[in-house]
Amino acid sequence: MNEDYAIAVFWSGADKAWIADAPDLKSCSAFGATPEEAVSELRVAMAAWIEAAKANGMPLPEPLFRQALPAAE
């Protein structure tokens, strides 16, 4: 299901790292030395976020954001 959620990736000069963020999932983000590493870490965080929401009986948010470009495989 986490393939339905958009991912934003950007460089953070303050953190000196790439940040990957899932805007539809509150406070769900990750960082890495490369954009690919940040996205990989975010996918783990997204799965944990979704699992925790389900375990607590919380509804999953509808995906609102859209990616500007399709994710690279």
TrEMBL record:
Highest taxon listed in the record's lineage: Bacteria
SUPFAM superfamilies: TTHA1013/TTHA0281-like
InterPro entries found in the cross-reference section: TTHA1013/TTHA0281-like (IPR035069)
Protein name (record): Predicted nuclease of the RNAse H fold, HicB family
Lineage: Bacteria, Pseudomonadati, Pseudomonadota, Alphaproteobacteria, Hyphomicrobiales
